[in-house]
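Format is sequence with structure; example below:
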Amino acid sequence: MRINESMLGRVLGKLVACDEDALGSLYDLLERLGSESHEIVSAEFRLFLRKQELLVDQLVARLGGMSGVERLLAGEPAISMVSAAARFVAREKFVIDISPHADDAKVQISGLGDNFRNWCLPIVEESTPAIDLSSFTLFTLDTLISDRDIIAKIGGVKKAIVSLADIKRKMEKQPHGPDSPVGKLLENGTANIFYVLQPVARVIGNQFIYTNLNGAEVPETVTDPQYLLKIGDHWHVLRAVCMFRDGGGWYVDALPVVDQRRWNGCSRVFYRNFSVLGPSASVSASS
C-alpha cells in the first residue's frame, strides 16, 4: 500500500506527540517488521490489536452498552445492570402460559413457532454479559427492508447479535402486554425483531447440520455464507427471532436470515450495538 501525503502527515503528527519511551517502542517494532521474521511479527501485532478490541467490547458490555459509557464519561452514578446469567436454558424459560399472573416476573406466552422450537429451544447459553436493558438500541422500520440491509444499518453481524436471555429479559419488562409497565416492545401485532445465533453441529460442503428439539440431526443448505459463523471451534448460524403480541400473550417464532424476504415497515429491530460474543471469540464467516 502506498502512503499518500495526507496519511504521512497524520503519522508524523502522531510521532511528534509521542514521548521518548513510546518512540523507542515504535522504533523497535519497525526494526522487527523490517527483519526476515516480519510475517510472524506482523501476525503477532495484529493479534495484539484484536485482543485490545475485544477487551474494549467486554468493558462496554459490563458498563451496560454505549449509554452506560456515556453516563460514565459524564460523571453520572453507576447504573443498575442485569447480572450476568450463569446458565440460560431456553426450553425452561420459553414456556407457553397464558394464565393471569400476580407475579410480573412470569411472562404470558401464547405460542412458540415450529422454527423457534427446533432452532432455539435446544440452546443453552452458559453466560451472557451484564447489560442495562434500557441501553438496547432499536429502530422502527419505515419501509420494506431485507435482513441484509437491516444488519448493514446496525453495523454488521457482530453488533446485531443478541442472546435469548436478552430477549426473555425484554419480555419480562412487559409480561402482560398493555397491562404491563411501559416498555419498548411493540404490542400491536407488529413484529419485534432480534438476531440470535443457533449452534451448528457440523458443516459439510454447502450444508450445515443442527440438532433439533427431539435430538435429531437436520441438514440445511447454506443460503448465504456470511450468516454461517465460526466462533472459536464452534459453528453457528444467524437466525431472526420475531415476536408478536396477540390477544392472549406473546407469540415467538424464528426465520432464516435471507435477502429475499422483506420485513414490513413499522416492525421494530432491537440490538446491543456492541459485541455480545465475549473477549475470547474469534469470528470468521463461512467461505
In short: The mean pLDDT is 78.
